[in-house]
Write a structure and sequence with these properties.
Layout: E1 10-13, E2 18-27, E3 31-38, E4 41-48, H1 55-67, E5 79-82, E6 89-94, E7 101-102, H2 103-107, H3 115-134, E8 137-138, E9 147-149, E10 156-158, E11 165-166, H4 183-186, H5 194-210, H6 218-222, H7 228-237, H8 258-266, H9 269-279, H10 281-284, H11 292-304, E12 306-308, E13 314-316, H12 319-325, E14 343-347, E15 352-356, E16 362-363, H13 365-368, E17 381-385, E18 393-397, E19 403-407, E20 410-414, E21 419-421, E22 427-429, E23 434-438
Antiparallel strand pairs: 1-2, 1-5, 2-3, 3-4, 4-6, 5-6, 7-9, 8-11, 9-10, 12-13, 14-15, 14-23, 16-17, 17-18, 18-21, 19-20, 19-22, 22-23
Length: 439
């Protein structure tokens, strides 16, 4: 510990300022990380081991600082650090707040999230990587260690961004983390790029939703010595999805791999289809992988489909199952038949969104506006309870726009702060979209 920098040491930054080391935070494969003060602001300072402090890494940092982060979820480099007294260099980045926990804490059940919070995190992740790829960049190392989650909100932060490169860059460097690398990377047939990022993202999403690895079924359970050759075969040379509909030889083992079995039964058909595509067609065919925009759209749809049971458990509206059976399946927690709550069917030019209206449901700009699909914060509507009539619920307008709807042959307005009753058949006009309340 503390082999590279001493506490209270001051190092220079390439923006003309300096920072002062306050404490040691930890170390990894590339260097050590410290808590530092930069002009009165708490930051993290990463200092590379000598063998990692290459000219290529220095140039990469300069480039990342120049272009800036894709969005506020990335703890991107802010300035390069150096010292005449110490070999090598480092960089400063925003310091992760203490209330953010490593995603591995969720997988190991050290922290618990509701489905609503969990899906907020998955949407934030997919949206962040969609924006990263849109900038022509590749992350290279999507895995547990590089992501943090705020348990109360589902907000996420992405660290270790010094490994981000231009997509298609063939220079050597970090190629990924075992269990998360795409098969072609495991086989050393390709360098990390956006397509391998998409595979790693799908693995991470599967872990988050199903608390299990998508390729670890009976084959993994039968391995006696989990050494490098065994891992290479399982993840690279002979991978098989645990829920492959054409080959059940790698199906999860009951009593050993129960998480996958339990959670696979909970989620609706449409989200499971994305994982089936990712780990069958997209397993060895990069063109078959699910794009970031599709992940974001369908994860938002999944979040909108949450149904709250009377017992308090969150379930999901599976429209395919509802059409086939004519009724909702029982609650996964209490096994009582679920009651279908009011829904809002919103008509967009290219799709129809169905939002389940629970007692705390909020609508966001992407729900109501066709030109604001990337705006996932600042609610524009919220389900509220009537102050004098507890059994009456309404949709409150939180936006500055005026809504309209027809009632008894009259056109009525709903201005900011007012509510419209959740009565079946009412058609709301939000300006750019229309929606019908279904009960």
């Amino acid at each position: 510990m503390n082999q590279l920098l001493k506490i209270k040491k001051t190092v220079a930054l390439d923006n003309g300022s300096s920072c002062r080391v306050l404490g040691y935070l930890g170390s990894g494969g590339q260097g050590e990380v410290y808590h530092a003060d930069w002009q009165g602001m708490d930051v993290a300072l990463k200092w590379y081991y000598p063998q990692q402090a290459t000219p290529e890494q220095h140039n990469a940092l300069k480039y990342l600082i120049k272009i800036g982060p894709p969005n506020g979820n990335f703890l991107f480099p802010l300035a390069v650090a150096s010292s005449d007294e110490i070999t090598g260099f480092g960089y400063i980045m925003p310091l992760r707040p203490k209330n953010y926990k490593n995603i591995s804490d969720l997988i190991k059940r050290r922290i618990e999230l509701s489905f609503k919070q969990l899906l907020t995190a998955t949407v934030e992740l997919t949206d962040s990587f969609l924006q990263l790829h849109a900038k022509g960049l590749c992350y290279r190392d999507i895995s547990f260690g590089n992501f943090f989650i705020e348990p109360d909100t589902g907000g996420i932060l992405i660290c270790d961004n010094d490994n981000v490169t231009i997509n298609g860059d063939k220079t050597t460097g970090v190629i990924g983390t075992p269990r998360f690398m795409a098969p072609e990377i495991v086989r050393r047939e390709a360098n990390p790029d956006n397509d391998s990022d998409l595979f790693s993202l799908a693995v991470l999403l599967f872990y988050l939703l199903f608390l299990h690895h998508p390729l670890e079924g009976k084959r993994e359970a039968d391995i006696k010595c989990f050494d490098l050759p065994a891992m290479n075969k399982l993840y690279g040379f002979d991978p098989l999805f645990i829920f492959d509909g054409n080959d059940n030889s790698n199906y999860p083992v009951q009593g050993y791999q129960d998480n996958a079995l339990i959670y696979w039964a909970i989620y609706p058909h449409f989200i499971k289809q994305l994982f089936i595509q990712s780990f069958t067609k997209g397993l060895n065919n990069i063109h078959g992988r699910v794009r970031g925009s599709e992940w974001r759209q369908q994860l938002l749809r999944l979040k909108d489909s949450i149904i709250e049971c009377a017992c308090g458990a969150e379930n999901f509206l599976d429209e395919t199952q509802l059409q086939q059976a004519g009724q909702l399946q029982p609650c996964w927690s209490c096994q009582q038949r679920l009651q279908l709550p009011p829904r809002l069917a919103i008509k967009h030019p290219t799709q129809q969104m169905v939002v389940v209206l629970n007692r705390d449901t909020q609508l966001y700009p992407y729900h109501l506006y066709t030109n604001r699909k990337n705006e996932l914060t600042a609610a524009v509507a919220q389900v509220v309870q009537h102050p004098q009539k507890p059994n009456v619920w309404g949709l409150k307008n939180l936006s500055p726009d005026t809504w309209t709807f027809a009632e008894n042959g009259q056109i009525k307005s709903v201005v900011q702060g007012q509510s419209v009753s959740l009565s079946a058949g009412i058609t709301l006009n939000f300006g750019q979209t229309q929606a019908e309340i279904c009960a």
